[in-house]
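ok so for the tutorial part 2 we go from a plain amino acid sequence to predicted structure tokens. step 1 is just haveing the sequence, like this:
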Amino acid sequence: MLSRGQSLFKMWILKKDVVQRDEKRLSPPQLKQLMEGGVRARLKGTRMASLLPPAGSETFRRLKPASRERFQDRQTSEVVQLEAGKPLPFFFGYPPPEFLNIPLEEMDPYYQSQKTFVVISRGNVLHRFHGGPALSLLSASNPLRRAAIVLTLTHSLFSLFILLTILSSCVFMTLSEPPEWSSTVERVFMAIFTFEAVVKVVARGLCAGRFTFLRDGWNWLDVLVICTGYLTQVLNVRIFTVLGSVARVLKIIPVIPGLKKTVGDLVQSVKRLGGVIALMLFFFGLCALIGQHLFMGDLKHKCVAWPPESSDNQSSQYNYSQYNYAKYINDHANLYYLPDQRDALLCGNTSNAGVCPRGYRCIRTGSNPDYGYTSFDSLRWSLLSVVRLVSKDLWANLMLQVLRSSGKPYLTFFLLVVFPAGFFVLSLIVAVVALAAGEQQGAAVSESKQREEEFSQILEAIKRSEEEETASRAALSQEPEGEKKDSMEGLEEVQRSCPACCSVTSKVLLKWKCCGCWQGLKQRLQALVRDPLFDLGVVLCLVINTIFMSLEHFPMTPQFSSMLNYVQLVFTVIFIIEMLLKLVAFDPYGYFQVSWNIYDSIIVFISLLLLADIINLRFLLLMRFLRLARWWPMLHMLMKIIWTALSSLRNLTLLLFITLFIFSVAGMQLFGNDYKDQVCHIAADCKLPRFHMTDFFHSLLVVLRVLFGDWVEALWDCMEVSGEASCLLFFMMLLVSGNLLVLNLFLVLLLSPLRGLSPAGPEEKVNNNVQMALRRIYRATGSLLGRKTGAKPELTERDGQEVDKKEHLALDIRTNGDHEVPEETPEQKAKTPEDHQHRDPEDCCSQKCCPLQVVDSSRGAGRVWTNFRRFCLCIVQHKLFEIVIIFIIVLSSVALAFEDMHLHQWPLLKEVLHRADQLFIILFLSEMLLKWSAFGLSKYFRDGWCCLDFLVLHVFLVSLGVEIFGFGSLGFFLCLRSLRALGPLRILSHFQGLRVVVLTLLGGAPALLLVLLVVLLVLQFFSVLGVNLFAGKFFFCFNETSDEVFPAGEVDNQTQCMSLMDKNHSVQWRNHELNYDNVLMGHLSLLHLGAAAADLGVVYSAADAIGIESQPVYEAQPLAYLYYVLFIIISSFFTCNLFIRVFINHLQRHKSGKQLFSTEQQQRWIESLKNRVLRPARPVPRPQNCLQARLLDLVSFLCFEVLVVVVICIHLVQMSVMSEYYEINHYLYLVVLVLYLLEFILKVTALRKHYFTNALNVLDFLVLIMSIPGLFFADIWTFYFFPPSIILMLRVTRVFRVLCWDPSIRKLLLSFMMSLPALLNLGLLFVLLIFTSSIFGMLSFPFVRKQGMMDDMFNFETFGSSLICVLMISSSASWGGMLGPLMKTSPDCDPDTLNPGSFIRGDCGSPALAIVFFIVNIYLGYLLVVNMYIAVILEVFGPEENQTLSDQHLQNFCKTWRKFDPESSQFIKYSELSDFCDALQDPLRILKPNSLRLTSMDLPLQAGDQMLCQDVLLALAAQVCTESKCSLRARLEEKFPSKVSCGPISSTLQRKQEEVAAAVIQRAFRKHATAKP
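step 2 — the prediction. this is what the tokens look like for a chain of 1573 residues:
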């Protein structure tokens, strides 16, 4: 069950207050007082009272043979504080050293009767053992068993030895070709693991009793390691080796403390995913079936060179045999291939599909693309394609292949699967994992607070006890002063830490205290380095140094290189001086107390090593970049996020690394030899590809590639060399488990507090020094210029804290003069002047601008003018006017979509669009004039939405004027023509939902811009690092004739290539398009890779680079891959976490208490929809006809619904076995249709008109009506629309209804439904962005030369093709092949080519415009999609609304009550309560067995063991709704007045306690009676 007790914003606020608390301990005097009766009496009734040892007894007692006679015969619930494997609670104190590592009596009352004893190891960790003899031979006092216990638990060297053994074994696993002596080492490992298992068995016992060896699931890893290890010595079976390796690596988890708990938390989150996984499988299966029926066999259509004999004039003479024909079309030499493509060109036989070149025909032949694995020919491959679409791995390639073979209309299928449907499944998964992570964080916070409260209670009890004892003894005796002193010191001991003790030598070396002159110098230097201007100077030096480091490029002149070296020397001296000043000012002791100073000293030390030429790694100076985080809060936050992942969340991070290692080793052991033996199947030259699994490093690269989202190509290679089953299982397990771990780490990191850092940035005072210095300079500049700056004086640290506190208390209040005005919400800001209904118009303009506007409106021209403005105001505020304007905007946007490059071929359409454009401009101009007259110029231009309309209108006016006067061929006006694509943005001002979303996003723009600056700094860091590592190394010698790169053996460097160029002009010395020759190109290369582009050419070039101006060698530097791995992790994982953290913090600060991204009207609509969904359906009136009544009972029976679902599933299974060579039998289709028709007849007969009140019944009826024509016109329906079997698949929604029986799924779906308004608004804005960008691309890049991924179908020539391209760009899918052609310039294109029907010349692109276009689409699309996930997560985390029981619920309750209370006495027997609660209807029903739950509800008992109606209803209602008891009681009294006035005499919980007490007394009496002689 999902618990949603607090919203995400409340958790977001609470997590800021979580601080790391030290482990609380009591001093020995305090422990002594705690064991006394006075303190224990004060703790009576608290939770800890039951945990304390009995009064007057020893806390720790040795285990003796007679100890079990003192075991108490009682059982209580297991106490969490005394759980095995955890430290003892703080009130137990530190046990004496003689009680460590020896068997002690059980301290937990729950286990005292279960034959167990405990052992306390170092760190006060409690371990529990079975009290019986181990292996039926060794008792707890046996020396051998005690030695085994000491060895396995407490000896640190043994645990360290086992850990080192596991790590050494892991090192040997990574060897693809182990040495000959590795078998001997393997035997040593097996001996060590066997010895460890034997020692554990001796210490714990084998399996008899609790806490024995085999009762712990982690010990089964030892059994698996030993069994597989010895089996591999006899049998060389690959699976045994893999299982043994996996088990050995997993043995690290129980060895390292904390990892087992992390695994347990992950298992709990996986359990929550059960319902979502069922939904996901249902969705995947349905989409796979639809894809199978739509595209079966289409991907086999290829362009085949048709023989000359088959020409039209000789077709009658063509008489090849069937065998020769099949052989001819299957011959690869007769197929058409594009350059550098592995598969033949696909085509289709429909009007919108791809066409073949001249001399080729489209024929179905051969296999499917990508080794035959990309297809929809069977359910399994169709399912794999759907998973590929949802995970967005090369989904654009799959879409392009299908659209080329089947036609562009099928774009709808991919849009539905990838965007709304895929988002639905993935958002639910993210929401469930986020909810689990949030609950874990909440549990940690609650546990920390609970321990703090318990500790405070004990200290308070001890303090009060001491005060009373001191007061009572003051008149009688004098307490020894020493004892008092020890007691008082013990009370404060836990709240203070011992000061650091420094030796005399350290004081002399680290604390420089000399003469008075030295002290004066130190004071002056302290004032200097603490001055804000000093910090500002350091920051300026860092910024300037960064700029100079970014100036490096290739090639550089010697003078420029020498200048950069001198600059670096100057900055090194500056930073050395800074360090020396701080060392003298604060002494080494004070200087190194600050962590940033330690970091600065390390950089200075590295700089000195570089100056002395001891090391030659100049890129280490890039560490100076990170010094900016000391004064830049956002960069500091990013570093804190990275540090939190490596420190606070180290267990989860380590578990992720373990998973990566396991899959890397398993992949190498499973598929390594297959890659070597079958490499010719995947490479024409029989060379291993870049990503393979023959060694550990490359196997790790494959695993990382899968986690980065690029898994399908590696899967194809694996299946081609090693088989389908094993590779599919391996990659699916890696894809699911790896992404689940990454998602869990991401969300836990997002919800985790950053130690010592607030969401706005670091709170250290030094971080404000730069701002203070800037304010001081601003005031000084203003004073020199003789004007007031208005800047506030600098605040002290205390004042600043007070101001921050006030701002925190009033986040949504803005001060305006002396009055506080609530800050406007995005909903209020989104209202346009039309939304405010006014009877009288405002002034046209301000009196300051137009003093002559004051006219008498009561007579003459003033009255006419006022009446005219009122008339205009009535027009623009009318709903019909708004509808007409929206209709005109839609028409103008549609008209823009027709203005493609082929418009000149349709003169009539061109003329119609030209006239329509003029008409639209006139209408929009009339709208603007009406609004000017109605609202006045002042109000019109104060509204941002009106300004947007004004701007767009003038773009159209200027564009029309330019076209009329013939200036359209000028460069500036060409750009202005492209800006006409902004016309659809006018729709923003007419939909309040879109305005709310835009204003919410704009409100977070300042914070997001700061995040963007951090992202740019990260790109700058890696770009400068790339320039230092790879500048000038991406050049290669290329042969244009053979279109190949010369091997390194033939050409070694640029000199040899130049000599070949003199002999052969087809040889060229080229550079890779994406390189690191300068920082800007480095930015483009990293952006190309970081935005999930599929082109990895820049990565391959870095791995092949060996030197400047040298010919690349295949994978000469494989470690270069790690540079890109580190960049992707930081740029994609941590910066995304920073972005979401900052944006949620912005939403938390400006949330108005209502749902985000939606309007008030949408919220009211969703509330009404929610009430309709939660309201129980009204029962269908029972018909009087006997036959209809029996049919009603039949169709209302649960088994009938299950039977219908079974029939649907059988039909789907039968449809799934259809393949290219086996189609669905016509008679089977008829049988299924008859069954559905029979069900319809039965339901209509039984339910009558009520049949159509159910949405699923209406859907069944429509499916039936649409399926009947498909029975008679199947071929026509299939040719023009789609197979009729697709319609029958809509009945699968019945299965969806069965899945919703799970309450967790119902709650998730309800939360998703509550977020629908926000998702709808965000989705509409995303559609508007796609539409506008498609028109902009069509108007800006229509004549670009077709290269890369741009071909005859996918380009920017028409709106449809542009839409497909923009969709791929916005989803960050394979956009690299689109960006390349748009950046081509001369000589790679012809700038003077004439384009028919247009005054635009050339087929070149525009690099600057293309980069801006791509960046805007990528990041705006990313921003909107991320906010969609945030909207769902916020709704899932949202608290339950005040749900009330409906009148129908009360009627059902009273109806059931009458069955148990036929006399209407309003009482039932307590013995009947269980049956009554089981007979109720949902949501009040409590299924049997329900005795414990009813007892815990503490229901009031009346005289005679009777239950009152109102008491039962109020208690049951409190379990399912949040309505107050007073409100519910008032409603109940109103509808069902009470006839009794008596009070309860007991309760169900009290009765249970009495029964338990009576049972204890009886057992004690029997024991006493039997003990008498």
